[in-house]
Amino acid sequence: xxxxxxxGHLHEGPPDTKLDRHVxxxxxxxxxxxxxxxLDVTVVAVAQNTFQQEFGTDAAGxxxxxxxxxxxxxxxxxxxxxxxxxxxxxxxxxxxxxLFVLGSALCALAWNIGSLVAxxxxxxxxxxxxxxxxxxxxxxxxxxxxxxxxxxVLGIPMLLGPIGGPILGGxxxxxxxxxxxxxxxxxxxxxALVYSWFVLRDDEETTKxxxxxxxxxxxxxxxxxxxxxxxxxxxxxxFLTPTVLIPAIxxxxxxxxxxxHALRAKNPLLDLRLFRNRTLSISVVTMTLFMIxxxxxxxxxxxxxxxxxxxxxxTAGLLLAPQGLxxxxxxxxxxxxxxxxxxxxxxxxxxxxxxxxxxxxxFLGADTSYWILCSALFVQGLGMGMTMMPIMSAALxxxxxxxxxxxxxxxxVVQQTASSIGTAVISVVLASGLAGSMQAxxxxxxxxxxxxxxxxxxxxxxxxxxxxxxxxxxxxxFLVAVxxxxxxxxxxxxxxxxxxxxxxxxxxxxxxxxIMH
Length: 517
Fold this sequence. Notes:
- The protein is mainly α.
- It is built from 23 helices and 3 strands.
- The chain is 74% helix and 2% strand.
- Strand 1 and strand 2 form a beta hairpin.
- The two termini are 17 Å apart.
């Protein structure tokens, strides 16, 4: 941003939307952290059956390696804004990296399922801060006029994580051991730590901001209980059980109480008054619907390839690669042009492409051509590259530097909650449809190829007609995801379809270079 003074009047010069070397270096720091955090979730999901065998536990016990991590994320994300203001983004980011790397190393040393879950919690405490703090750092470095371009960079690991995770997890488990699912984070984390130390700058100022204790006691446990409840639905295959309903309802009550408190508190843990910003409010609603559908559908693709088609985890991951390739093609273009033309012009056609690609999966069979499915995934990827990051850009582009920490925290809270809801909804719909057959239901719901089930289950092979029926159930479940994506059209229609004006506030004016004529 440049400001010139002519005749005593200040006016804003044309913003520079090109990413300079320093911003790109900071983007590299944030992407490294995001890769570790996002890949870790999907890689561990692939290793669930291995954990059962290694530690002599059941599916519910192994699932706590994922649940414990998610609950730690939910508990710590609300602290992001306060921690950044109190200690500075660089210190918090470095501390998060240390916790994540330490947790990863400890996980590899776990001796039973209880120790593994405990170490996953440590990992989650670090991972929960990596994304929101990284987003704050990147947004402030780039400025609102380049937010679309930097979000496109950050979006690469966010979109490729669900695809790369199964490939990496399958490769590590099949060629080495489960320990490397966690040890792989250690060298990457050390590189990220050294890189961050030299590239990131200390914040110009920090404040001795007092923490909102009431807000913390409401929001962190509220989110954790709510996410625990809805995540438990996948195990029970229904929402209508006390194990799901009780924690989810208590969590929802605490979240509502936090909203009531935050709208009245002078310095709340998370400033919900940001929702007065129309563009941010529309973006958050659009993002919520999109994330529910996207993460829910992401669960179905590998399960179909593994459970119905009998592919290995590694092959299933490779079959998803066209989706990532499509996203990589459109994401940088959409990000750069979003800064100049507004997000609405890309999000709406992006949703159309996602609907076209995902719509093909409604008509799944047990032997549908991989050429057709991979082509559909590629089209879907093109749409995702035009959709996810422009929505997030719209949410942050109208915020000034003082609002960015709360905005980033809010976006990450919504993201985590929506993805958990999407996974739960789609899991329950799929499990309900597959409930008629224990063998195929277990194989598909647990991401296990039929030939890798216990011997007593392999001795009862199912006829081809069953797999045709299972494929139809997957098609019906994809229909639910398609409907959710279609609903995203409603709020997306109201996204700005012209360039979003950058906020020019007094603090920015003080820092802007003055060109005297």
